[in-house]
Amino acid sequence: MQFLCKEYQDGNPRVRGLVTDTRIHLVPSLNPDGYELAHEAGSELGNWALGHWTEEGFDLFENFPDLASALWAAEERRLVPHQFPNHHIPIPEHYLSEDAAVAVETRAVMAWMDKNPFVLGANLQGGEKLVSFPFDTARPSPPTPAAAPRPLDYEDERPELQETPDHAVFRWLAISYASAHLTMAETFRGGCHTQDVTDAMGIVQGAKWRPRAGSMNDFSYLHTNCLELSIYLGCDKFPHESELQQEWENNKESLLTFMEQIHRGIKGVVTDQQGEPIANATIVVGGINHNVRTASGGDYWRILNPGEYRVSARAEGYNPSVKTCHVLYDIGATQCNFVLSRSNWKRIREIMAMNGNR
């Protein structure tokens, strides 16, 4: 925060462009309870677990509703996308009840996500040095038919690795951070606790590394428009004060590069023929089975890798509109606006209902 403010005032063109063209939200600490505990022990007496949980015993990162399992169950019943959406999946009612085991911090973050149309996000953690991206949840293996014989080398059933429809985009975003970091891609040193789990890239899909349900990243992806990743900054979760300057230098370029990735892909506004914005219109990108919605002003952003895409905009009561949008290699989202015309289907249904569907 200090860096952005100082460099902006000093006229740094890169920072000025970033601050002027990007709405940046920064949360210094999601778990102040844990920070207090870690601060009391200090760098020398702390360990990876100290400060991980809130005072009530919640691991906030894993305290979100498990929407991935709900999506996969609906897919197996062939309900997606006509009866069950592939995006903006609603929060289960039992999770919202007052007596549900949900931390007050988690409820606050979910309300914050619903209020703001976030596009790109990162949560900063410690205990490892890598970038992790969704899915964090491992998909259960399909049940084996009772009559099917098990092979002799049968092992315990292992969950299969399910990639998100935006797997290539997530990999790009993760690499943009890890490759710009001064030491994160030096995986020849091994990991903090084991050998390198990132295939010498400094990045890993969460479910491959540490499978867990109800993560903040999976929730962001399936309930909002936001692509969110976890950035593990180092092995020491509470570095000594003398080490902080070097930690800043390690991550400074990565933070800037990562934030700049929000301007990669397509953006635009969806309006009706009178120029009025259409909120909650659905933006569908051909070949990527995950849609996004327009915000209250009819505006949308969709991070995409370079290429040519067939994009359509759809809204209740309107005819869909389709166009081809080109994403270039240079930073700067391609403008793709849509104008939707009113549909006659609502009137047709009314006439059919009046005439007994004849």
List the helices and strands and how they pair.
Layout: H1 2-9, H2 13-21, H3 32-45, H4 67-76, H5 93-96, H6 104-115, E1 120-125, E2 128-133, H7 167-178, E3 203-205, H8 206-209, H9 216-223, E4 227-234, H10 244-260, E5 265-272, E6 282-285, E7 292-293, E8 299-303, E9 307-314, E10 321-327, E11 334-335, E12 338-340, H11 345-354
Parallel strand pairs: 1-4, 2-3, 5-11, 5-12
Antiparallel strand pairs: 2-4, 5-8, 6-7, 6-9, 9-10
Helix pairs in contact: 1-2, 7-10
Report what the structure shows:
The protein is an alpha/beta fold. The protein folds into 2 domains: 1-141 and 164-263, 3-Layer(aba) Sandwich (Aminopeptidase), CATH 3.40.630; 266-348, Immunoglobulin-like, CATH 2.60.40. The chain is 30% helix and 17% strand. The chain is built from 11 helices and 12 strands. It has helices at 2-9, 13-21, 32-45, 67-76, 93-96, 104-115, 167-178, 206-209, 216-223, 244-260, 345-354; strands at 120-125, 128-133, 203-205, 227-234, 265-272, 282-285, 292-293, 299-303, 307-314, 321-327, 334-335, 338-340. The chain has a 4-stranded mixed sheet with strand order 1-4-2-3, sandwiched between helices. Strands 5, 8, 11 and 12 form a 4-stranded mixed sheet that branches. A hairpin with a 6-residue loop joins strand 6 and strand 7. Helix 1 (2-9) crosses helix 2 and helix 7 (167-178) runs antiparallel to helix 10 (244-260). The chain is globular and about 80 Å long. One of its GO terms (biological process) is peptide metabolic process. This is AEBP1 protein.
